[in-house]
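REQUEST ID: PR-0412
SUBMITTED BY: lab tech R.K.
PRIORITY: routine
TASK: structure prediction, single protein chain
INPUT:
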Amino acid sequence: MPTDGTPSQGPRSRDPAGAETARGWDRTTVRRAGALAFAVLIAAVLLRSTLLAPTTPPHSADSPVVFHVPAGATFRDVVDTLVHRRIIERPLLFRMRARLSGRDRSIKAGTYHLPAGARSREVLRTLTEGRVVSESMTFPEGMTIRAMAGRIAEAAGADSAAVARDLSGTNLHSRWAVPGPGLEGYLFPDTYRFAEGVGVDAVVDAMVARYHRYWTPERRERLAATGLAEQEAVTLASIIQSEARRVDEMPIISSVYHNRLRIGMPLQADPTVLYALGGYRPRLLYSAMDSVADHPYNTYTRAGLPPGPISAPGTAALDAALVPADTNYLYFVAKPDGTHVFTQSLREHNAARARIRREFGPAS
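STATUS: complete
OUTPUT:
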């Protein structure tokens, strides 16, 4: 007992075993936690290196891989095809990579050209972005649906006779929201790129969409100023397209027809008679014209514009129909070089025809 009056607190007990046990538990926990963290780190490194490792086999530098994904194919079907074609070698890792990125639900159908030696990420990106093989195809101005059918069939992977038949329906304009009748004149002439086997509807969609893009607000204003309906303007443009060999003459040819329409004079446009006869002929004989005298597209026997376009006019012909030249011409006659002599009266027209025949022969 202390002698200085300080109360006794009793003896302090020491528990070396307990202290060691607590300190030992702390060290064990630390060691285990460190081992676990190290194991996780190693696993992450291994997983990352595995995922980043190529899953595509080497290919010859001069042999790009071509493969096709059919419409409706599942992701598993696509992977199986890639494995079968030796485009990928590790399907499990390829599937994991696709699913982690959410791209396993975005594979697009089509035919693909894959650069030789492409890595799996490039393969996946190609498939999900739809970088399908496509070819350029041009439809010149003035083509009829019958003439277009072969090219449309080639792009769509279809039979040309079937395409011509299927696209000749007189009620198809309702389906594609064009004035009609049918699609004649509304499959816009231009250069397009189509994927192999894209289908007829996709080709028509693209061509009709191009037609709709022609009609800007400014052109709608010009249309209103002519007093023509959209169908009438396209029909007139198709006649101008068939008559003109030079773009700079289109507004003048347009003025002739506008002048005739204004005074109620028959258009007497040879291309409309040829359309009624079923196509081009080197010479339009009177006997042939008589055979289609009652045809609605015969503008010699029927006043005004025919029921619809006779071909697909391009931008220049459509613009000419909307903005004709300011002339008093009512007639024109073609010269062998494709240019025309324009006149105001029948007397002048006959004189021009006689002059051309004298200069170039009776075949002109």
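NOTES: The chain is about 50% helix and 10% strand.
REVIEWED BY: pending
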